[in-house]
Amino acid sequence: MSADASRSARRSDTEIGVAAGVGAHLMWGMFPIFFGLLAPAGPVEILAHRMLWTLVLMLAVGLVTRRIVRLRSLTPRSMLLVAAAAAAISLNWGVYIYGVTSGRVVETALGYFVNPLVSVLLGVVIFRERVNRWQAGALGLAAVAVLVLTVDYGHPPYIALTLALSFGAYGLIKKVVPLDPVTSLTAEGLVTAPFAIGYLGFLAVTGTGTFVGHGAGHALLLMTAGVVTAAPLLLFGAAAQRVPLVTLGIIQYLTPSLQMAWGVAVLHEDMPASRWIGFALIWLALLVFTVDAVRRVRTARRGVLEPVP
Question: How far apart are CA 52 and CA 70, in angstroms?
Fold first, then answer.
């Protein structure tokens, strides 16, 4: 292959990756719309259906791609990691659904704005990673923002912090799980399925579920939660293989931006001046964090060693 053809192929692959990444984050950004359609189902029932139908879909994908056989190679340590990942993402999903269905979409968006900074903090605490001055400054701004929002809400932004910490923990666990995304998500579904099936069975026996009795459209929407969950994850996996992490990091801000816009412009959630100040500090922290990441990539490409902070 000629040099021009090779560059063209790489450019095309990158364009596909960017399109996949944007598609994933557009879908995640529209989650408040989708989950708002699932009423009168409660948050826990929605979570159970999301777990169950995501597993059904991933089992089908695993069978078609023949990756399901990789589950046989799981060691006890790998299973423990998968169980930990399943617990973290289940907490994240459950809190997110609760936030959306209780009319706190803006606070859920805050959680995903904060998430990149929380991931850095977890890396420092757990893996003893070092941060430079820029990253330390971004973390400091984020801490001030949380303090401002705590004063504004009258309590810490529990939903946002839980979302950021649970997803950050999920990301750290996924780094050490020796499985591809399809197999890993399927394994996580197998861990959570007994709980989901048990709870849905309880709702069916007690007649308190909404899967039946509210029309075929409602049942279909609950089943669609599997596709809505798996599709952006698969798109994101495709993007991660083709796009630099810095580019992915910038694209990821699309999700909370769309969610916040929905909460403020459509749901008309309360946004006093103090809350805007808190969000402005978070955005400033993210700007510092992103500029530093871009600077580091450019330095690495020039082959210049980054000075120790």
Answer: 21
Dihedral, CA of residue 238, residue 243, residue 248 and residue 250, to nearest 10: -150
- Of residues 162, 161, 23, the one with CA closest to residue 94: 162
Cα 161 → chain centroid: 13
DSSP string, 246-270: HHHHHHTTHHHHHHHHIIIIIS---
Which amino acid, residue 60?
A: A
> Based on the number of CB atoms within 10 Å of its own CB, is 246 exposed (0-12), middle (13-18) or buried (19 or more)?
middle
Separation CA 8–CA 257 (nearest Å): 32
Closest CA to 164 of 109, 123, 246: 109
Q: CA-to-CA distance for 282 and 208, rounded, in angstroms?
A: 41
The pLDDT value given to residue 88: 93
Give, in order, the Cα–Cα distances in Å from 251 to each of 29, 221, 239, 267, 305: 11, 28, 11, 24, 27
39: helix, coil or strand?
A: coil
pTM: 0.86
Inform me whether the pLDDT recorded for 57 exceeds 70.
Answer: yes
Dihedral angle of Cα 299, 305, 306, 308, to the nearest 10 degrees: 180
Is residue 305 over pLDDT 50? no
Provide the angle, in degrees to the nearest 10, between the axes of the packed helices 215-240 and 43-65: 60
Measured between alpha carbons, how far is 114 from 252 in angstroms, rounded to an integer? Answer: 11
Q: Is 39 left (phi over 0), alpha (psi -120 to 50) or beta?
A: beta
Tokens representing 258 are 């769309």
State how far the Cα of 40 lies from the Cα of 49, in Å rounded to an integer: 14
Sequence-distant (6+) residues with CB within 8 A of 165 are: 118, 122
**Per-residue pLDDT at 13 exceeds 80:** no
Position of tokens 């259906």? Answer: 49
Distance CA 127, CA 297 (A): 22
